[in-house]
Amino acid sequence: MNTIAAQFLDGRHLAARPAEVSREDDRLIVAGEGFRHAFPVREVRVSDRLGRIPRYLYLPDGATVETTAHDAVDAFLPSTRRTRLARLLHWLESHTAFAAGATALLLVAIGLTMVLGLPVAARHLALQVPDAMDRRAGEVSLAAMSKFTQPSGLSAARRREIEALAADLAALRGLPPPRVEFRSMGGRFPNAFALPGRIIVVTDELVEVAGSDGELQAVLAHELGHVHHRHSLQGVFRGSAALLVVTLVSGDLSALTTFSASIPFVLLQRGYSREFEEEADDYAAETLRLAGVDLDEFAAILGKLEGSREGLAVDYSYLSTHPHTDDRIKRIDRNAPRAPRSR
Amino acid sequence: MADENPPPAPEASLSGGAPAPSPDALSPGVPPAAVAVEPPASVPGTEASGAAPAALTMAVGDPPIHPAPVEIRPTPAAPAPLAPFTFHGDAREYFRIWIVNTLLTLLTCGVFAAWAKVRKRRYFRGNTEVLGHRFDYHAEPWRLLVGNILVAFLFVAYVVVGEVYPLVRVGAFLAGAVLLPWIVVRSLAFNAHNTSYRGIRFYFGQPYGSAALLYLGQAVVIAITLGFYYPAWQRNRRQFIVSNHRLGDAFFRFESGSSPFYLAYLVGGLMVAGAAIVGLLVTVGIVMAQKGRIPGLTQMLPYLAIYGTAFFLARHYVYARLFNQVWNRTHLDRHRFVASLRTGAWMRLQLTNLLAMIGSCGLLYPWAAVRSMRHLAGSLHFQPAGPVETIGRLGRNTGSAVGDTTAEFMGMDFGL
Question: In which element (H, E) is residue B302 found?
């Protein structure tokens, strides 16, 4: 019968002696110079194959046989469910094709999680955030924003008019009035922002640029869309996968307010994602239809905002992530059932 | 091999924050002497293990040893040559193993993680060789699974119940702190008892008293001294870990003062402090150059990059210094170890590991883990003072099975 070259470790001393292992019927024979042991094969346990590390036969009396004759060992010992599973695992681990397949699968799984899972989780979580926490996040955002903006120069009467416009639009959608804040950007930056806490920030420059209340309503309706979908919170969660995971797992929202301070900066520098903008556009189109405002007003103000972008410092490229203005207008035309318009 | 584990986080020592015994700090360390080499931090999770020393074959004239009543005739010895530790792991081979196990872990929602961990440890120990033999790892994966489930259960209970009754969290935290010494000892014992060399197992004692003193009492001292005690604590921790390990009936010993530890942390701290100053100057320069702009994250990036890199390098600098210090002061019975890990080479290696990991989205982790381990093994030698065959099974003199029975009671792995 075949023999396997091995080392015999008696389990009593740190000594190894060369030995030969063979099988006689149901017995495993371990023999070397001056010793010969026999063990029932069924009582011998063998370590699972893994890479090229040595195999160990654990003998019933506490001794061990160490060998690198992998195939011979596998052929020697009885096959059980456990050893078959171990062999399968080793087989998978030793084929490059499986490694390549596993790599591809892992990458796809990770990619899908990032691309599909993250936004879904962010939306779910943003809508779950309690109103009180949403308001606190809004306060933090607003405080951060007021550091680089100036108090508004608009008259109290004008502010009340705009607040009323926003409240009316919200009422059309069955929502409570948003909180409208007015700030001045030093003459450079006509725009509006939606912050957490149902806050819409309107810049003096926007009010100056807008040619009519209809145009203001269009912008307010768009921002109401962001408010309704809580895009600012969604953005925070999307921007910090770590925050998202921690919050999902632990339910602890306390870190959210810290991150909220970054919202105004992110909005200024990068704006919302295209997807959020389209969602807000759709919301605005429906709101404007209910309010009887012609979509031309929306197109007009979009064009003005785009025009004002030229000449701004790179950091203010807020509009750059917005869908191209023409596309947005076409999209709204296509999707929104609306009153006839002339153009 | 070991290493001492992950390099103790420098920050703790620097910032004065009290490095509470974080699991991170503890775990790794498996004893240098004893087993376990855990690859450094940058390689997350690798715990490789290495093991330690034993030795045998001193090939040269091994007296024939007879079986039964083993008598050993020591070879009178000329000063033995240094016996190198060698790591035989192969990055491609380990990549195949790692990727398959990772995928299985995902597909089984984490249940397979216990099996994957055991395979990883077996791979690293089984490829670490000294004096002609490798280390073997015997842990039953289901014991790790039990530990994993327990930890997951406690975590969920802490989070969910704590949400409703915040007091439960305080109670759980206190309970965790009190249990920490026990958990540390059980984990060290588990991994020691499941590691063997030439058929002889490692052991870790049951020093609950000193563990409590170290992880609770001295942790308070660290807090009181604003972290200045941290290097001394690290020294005490190594002492605790090393000197409670045995290979069979042979004890590991560790004798070292605290000064080398303070020196290592001092240099590491200076590296981080220097980077913080340089980074600050760069940031101020950038902000001044674009004054009027709204400050944003982009202006902070150079600072974060400089500080982060310095922190990373300092961490590995300290690791290498302590690796040498710990192994060079470790004895196994009459035998000793010689470590010569070069700090510059080690920092370069870890930096390239980091870049490779980032660039490959973590796919090069097996490569990083294997080359770290190979480098560590290549920096360590065993210096036998005579034949190592005299080391025997624990309890063999009395013929009692106490040692082996103790090994059965090995607790569980808590993933430390």
Answer: helix B297-328
